[in-house]
Write a structure and sequence with these properties.
By secondary structure, this protein is an alpha+beta fold. The protein folds into three domains: 101 residues, Alpha-Beta Plaits (2-Layer Sandwich), CATH 3.30.70.1050; 155 residues, Trigger factor, C-terminal domain (Trigger factor, domain 2), CATH 1.10.3120; 95 residues, Chitinase A, domain 3 (Roll). Helices cover 47% and strands 21% of the residues. The strands form three sheets. Strands 6, 7, 8, 9 and 10 form a five-stranded antiparallel β-sheet that branches. The chain has a four-stranded antiparallel β-sheet with strand order 1-2-4-3, sandwiched between helices. The model has no long low-confidence stretch (mean pLDDT 90).
């Protein structure tokens, strides 16, 4: 065997492999002899088939098997000599050789894992949301829960924030109707943020049976590009107005929220616990987001093309599966690999960086960490024990948890390297902050 390593790009390698035809023939002859002793061919007794006949029927196939095995063997020896860690499988290509050449000549093309140079995180500033959950936050949440369970009654009063209204409307751009601009018996709750504020403001103050025309401008960044930034004239008819009737905060309401014995004090405590859990999760998510971006920004790491291609394929299939759950066939929507490339490259690079940090700093997941994470996660469900058993019944589900714990281990390590700056904010600010960067 002869090998020659070339570097066309930072991660791609080419190795030239030369295999003696004589060695191939020696191994081939040996296998033909062994096969002749047991092969069954019409007209010959077992073990008495002439070697020439065996070679005629099985020689070509056996030669390919021997050549393939020797090629793999020589390739493995070559990469071990060069101390290369390859990614994926190599691509072998036979080279043109002179007639009667005593060797088979091949080139093997493959990629290797990159050398990773971790950056200095000490100059990185990470903001940590600091949120206090007190009686005020619990009361606000309780009021939201009341509104979510409100009953509505018809009223003759003008429409106000919080009311549920039913309308007919028609929108025109330069006197022409547009897609999605007309509806009948459309119901909405004023103030829930599901419609544009200018449209909502036009309804407030109207009474059942009123008609109204008004003009409004759609935002330039509106999701529907056909009407973004355009002036629209709307005709509205208000069919009915309903006012919310909030449930009393009593034992029955506590039971509605899952407190079996209807204990009101316990209801308040569970709401507070739920808010604190939400704060903890969102705070961890924000810290993790900043740490991961910091690692990407400060680390020098080339990304193997083959791993990116594999990740792109995974993302495409994951998207198709997600669409299927919504009743949409993936074939009905063009899913070009290009739209997933940047995301796939980021994920692969981050995965390589995390693996390097885990190896260097011995951050591997311990069984007790996984157990603690599963138990904490299960506390948000009605039957925690059942959720815990569900996770431990599947190696795949446990592996997903272990991946999350591994990321947490890296984040905890990184937080000791960076400068953490506390950022006090309200619970509402934290929710908006999280949604804005999601």
């Amino acid at each position: 065997m002869q090998s020659n390593v070339e570097n066309p790009n930072p991660l791609e390698r080419n190795i030239d492999i030369s295999i003696s035809q004589e060695k191939i023939q020696v191994e081939l002859d040996d296998r033909l002899k062994r096969l002749a002793g047991k092969v069954k061919i019409q007209g010959f007794r077992p073990g008495k088939v002439p070697l020439k006949i065996v070679a005629q029927q099985f020689g070509a196939q056996l030669r390919q098997e021997v050549l393939g095995e020797m090629l793999q063997k020589h390739f493995q020896e070559a990469i071990q000599q060069q101390n290369l860690r390859i990614v994926g499988a190599p691509h072998f290509k036979a080279k043109q050789s002179e007639e009667n050449n005593a060797h088979y000549e091949f080139s093997a093309t493959f990629e290797v894992y990159p050398d990773i140079t971790l950056g200095d995180l000490s100059a990185l500033n990470v903001s940590k949301p600091v949120v206090k959950i007190g009686d005020q936050e619990v009361e606000k949440t309780l009021h939201i829960l009341q509104k979510q369970r409100a009953k509505y009654e018809l009223t003759d009063q003008p429409a106000a924030l919080g009311d549920r209204v039913n309308i007919d409307y028609k929108g025109l751009i330069n006197g022409v109707e547009f897609d999605g601009g007309t509806a009948k018996d459309f119901t909405l709750i004023l103030g829930d943020g599901n419609i544009l504020k200018d449209f909502e403001d036009a309804i407030i103050g109207m009474s059942a049976g009123d008609d109204k025309s008004f003009q409004m401008n759609f935002p330039a960044d509106y999701h529907d590009k056909e009407i973004a930034g355009k002036s629209v004239t709307f005709d509205i008819k208000l069919n009915k107005v309903e006012v919310p009737i909030l449930a009393d905060i009593d034992n029955e309401f506590a039971k509605l929220l899952g407190v079996e014995d209807g204990d009101i004090q316990k209801m308040y405590e569970e709401i507070q616990l739920s808010l604190e859990r939400e704060v903890l999760q969102r705070t961890r998510a924000k810290l993790k987001e900043q740490i991961m971006q910091g690692l990407l920004d400060t680390t020098v790491c080339n990304v193997p093309r083959i791993l990116v291609e594999q990740e792109v394929n995974y993302l495409i299939q994951d998207t198709k599966n997600s669409l299927a759950t919504k009743g949409i066939a993936g074939k009905d929507i063009p899913l070009s690999p290009e739209i997933f490339f940047e995301r796939a490259e980021r994920r692969v690079k981050l995965g390589l960086i995390l693996a390097e940090i885990v190896k260097l700093h011995n951050l591997n997941v311990k069984p007790e960490q996984t157990k603690k994470y599963v138990e904490y996660y299960a506390q948000s469900y009605e039957n925690p024990e059942q959720v815990i058993k569900w996770h431990y019944s599947s190696p795949e589900r446990l592996k997903e948890i272990e991946s999350l714990v591994l990321e947490d281990n890296v984040v905890s390590w990184a937080l000791e390297q960076v400068k953490v700056i506390d950022q006090e904010m309200t619970f509402e600010d934290l929710m908006r902050y999280s949604q804005a960067s999601a």
